[in-house]
Prior knowledge:
- There is one protein chain.
- The chain is an alpha+beta fold.
- The chain is built from 16 helices and 23 strands.
- It has a seven-stranded mixed beta sheet.
- Helix 11 (329-335) crosses helix 12.
- The longest helix is centred in the C-terminal third of the chain and has 27 residues, at 374-400.
- It is globular and about 65 Å long.
- The mean pLDDT is 93.
Amino acid sequence: xxxxxxxxxxxxxxxxxxxxxxxxxxxxxxxxxxxxxxxxxxxxxxxxxxxxxxxxxxxxxxxxxxxxxxxxxxxxxxxxxxxxxxxxxxxxxxxxxxxxxxxxxxxxxxxxxxxxxxxxxxxxxxxxxxxxxxxxxxxxxxxxxxxxxxxxxxxxxxxxxxxxxxxxxxxxxxxxxxxxxxxxxxxxxxxxxxxxxxxxxxxxxxxxxxxxxxxxxxxxxxxxxxxxxxxxxxxxxxxxxxxxxxxxxxxxxxxxxxxxxxxxxxxxxxxxxxxxxxxxxxxxxxxxxxxxxxxxxxxxxxxxxxxxxxxxxxxxxxxxxxxxxxxxxxxxxxxxxxxxxxxxxxxxxxxxxxxxxxxxxxxxxxxxxxxxxxxxxxxxxxxxxxxxxxxxxxxxxxxxxxxxxxxxxxxxxxxxxxxxxxxxxxxxxxxxxxxxxxxxxxxxxxxxxxxxxxxxxxxxxxxxxxxxxxxxxxxxxxxxxxxxxxxxxxxxxxxxxxx
Length: 499
């Protein structure tokens, strides 16, 4: 057995390969961005072949950094941006179209059509999800309806569907030459096609959407051996873990007990609460989703609050407005003022996700006066992340009946001290950052290591978790309520913008 476990973390903006040791410490990391393609307003695409190339580039570079070769790895786990939809030709291995990214809203017409008969919660009883442009099912339908000549091939199983996890595993394990066509329960639960109880594709929803079952991968546990890698840099190593990125972060944060929660601050924000072997249906606009499944153990469910735009708002200030040159600069700019100057920024760029689920909302900056500077805008952008998180936490407390006592945080934005303090202030509970902030990659590594005996049980993983820093609330309750009311008022201004 090797001394390390590897994780391929294929995210919305970049792909990384990380190597971890038995203590869950980072040994090496290599990361590369890929192109964001915007053919029309509201359309977001990725090139699946470019993403595969990024994997080929970062793996050998990270191994070289660690001074090891693939024989030192016991297994590799995969974690991925969820819902992003790839259709490809089984014989040639070539995608039939660019991937439709989770943020893409071109399926709004399909979603409206589906909602006309039974409303937004038509499939919620089975899938735990509202009908929304976010999920893969309508994206598959759009591709089948709009790419010429693939429908018959899909029915014959010659055009395959996968989220990015499935696309990577198929390619790594041989591609057209015997590649394994699988996904795990966590990714399958984001398609709007899987029944939460049976953990299988739902024939009725497939029929309504006109999606042939033959094109879908088989649904497996999140921690089991799927196959061996054929690629040179990792030849012979088993792929043994597969988790959607947010579930992987839950796993990496070792939230294995009912009531444990984590919030990931990435392109968007995702708050997941472990509800155990019980799928809790939300009445407050949250998603009911699969957390993970280890081997033949029973599946673990979650409540999830998904926020579309958080870190992406900082990128927008950098790339579209040029207010900052690099993302970390936002903290200093926001600190140049004492408060938001009365300005609130609601980034509903691709509609509002939890708890509203309004795909016709668009972004708004409210409360502008001549007094407002770019410092206030920067501060309002950071505060938007914290306020959106508070709305999700309120919904979670209502649904679960358990009040959150502390929040474990991870992801790219948790290095921002101003944001973390403000987050604690608006929630009124401590915010805790772990020693390893890259919990998504760590979760994928944990899943792969558990499946191959590198770690014996989840208790070994808990022992690895360590606290790096904790923020406690200092804001008084009256101020919090006053500002929150203004935030909610600003949110209502985004509604029904798209006609």
